[in-house]
Amino acid sequence: MDNKENNNLPVKKVIDTPQTNNTDTQIAVKSSFSNVFTPYERLVHYHETDKMGIVHHSNFIKWLEEARVDVMSQLGFSYDEMERMGIISPVLSISCDYRGMVKFNDTVLVYTNIESYNGVKMTLSYIITDKKSGEVRASATSGHCFLDSHGRPISLKKQYPLINDKLLKITEKNK
Question: What is the end-to-end Cα distance of the chain in Å, rounded?
Answer without folding.
Answer: 28
